[in-house]
Amino acid sequence: MSDDLESFRAGIARQRTPLPRDNEDARFVIRTDEVQWYTPKGTNPSHLGPVLGLPIKSFELFLQEIPAGGSSDMQQHHHEAVHYIMSGRGYSEIGPGRYEWATGDFVSIPPMEWHRHYNSDDSEPVRMLLIENSKLLDALDLNYRTSAGLVTWAELQDPERDPHTH
């Protein structure tokens, strides 16, 4: 039997194992100081810290920090996302709407809705916890994400704007 067929059959057998299944990764706690921060390449000036190492199969967790007076990029994606505001205040452009938020609020981003987050404070960063069902869509080969760069909703609607420039 080929290795591919053997692997396929093993996957089917694993699916037939009743839940809860044994976790392959027994790591259930990730400490804040273990999160590795980075600034995405391209047009998103915010800082991201993916929470890696947890045995999560269908969603992803990120920490996001938007510098004082800064913003994220304008983006859209197939996955749903919820942003929990850990500290700070600001607003989000979600489609044509503007939505104010502050510490303790939740911001929901529907699939394929253009959105951008802004920090309204000139002296303190905003910190958010992002929860996305992107892993599930990745597993189904259905995820997609794109950025329009540092444009506003109004600028995004300009028919003269070249959609290929960020």
TrEMBL record:
<feature type="domain" description="Cupin type-2">
    <location>
        <begin position="63"/>
        <end position="131"/>
    </location>
</feature>
<dbReference type="InterPro" id="IPR014710">
    <property type="entry name" value="RmlC-like_jellyroll"/>
</dbReference>
<dbReference type="InterPro" id="IPR013096">
    <property type="entry name" value="Cupin_2"/>
</dbReference>
<dbReference type="Pfam" id="PF07883">
    <property type="entry name" value="Cupin_2"/>
</dbReference>
<protein>
    <submittedName>
        <fullName>Cupin domain-containing protein</fullName>
    </submittedName>
</protein>
<dbReference type="InterPro" id="IPR047183">
    <property type="entry name" value="GDO-like"/>
</dbReference>
<keyword id="KW-0223">Dioxygenase</keyword>
<dbReference type="InterPro" id="IPR011051">
    <property type="entry name" value="RmlC_Cupin_sf"/>
</dbReference>
<keyword id="KW-0560">Oxidoreductase</keyword>
